[in-house]
Design brief:
This protein has one domain. It contains two helices and no strands. The protein has helices spanning 2-38, 45-75.
Length: 76
């Protein structure tokens, strides 16, 4: 039972880290687009959102693999 609680806490921690990284990335690209708009350049929202979603998925997959290896090799 303690192992299951540890797993859920670890997964929750990973998703919390992932969420904050995602928020930081959104703010960084949003400020870049505001700067582009102030310079008269057209913001590339579609490219930005595709990049943000792609990075978010990559981070989620990497954290999931790390969590799986951590559980398999350290707890079994």
């Amino acid at each position: 039972m303690i192992v299951i609680v540890k797993i859920f806490l670890f997964i929750f921690l990973l998703y919390l880290i992932n969420y904050f990284l995602f928020r930081i990335a959104c703010k960084a690209w949003a400020s870049e687009n505001v700067l582009d708009a102030s310079l008269g350049l057209e913001p590339k929202w579609l490219d930005v959102w595709a990049l943000i979603i792609g990075l978010h998925l990559c981070i989620t997959i990497i954290l999931g693999v790390v969590c799986a290896f951590w559980f398999i090799f350290l707890h079994l």
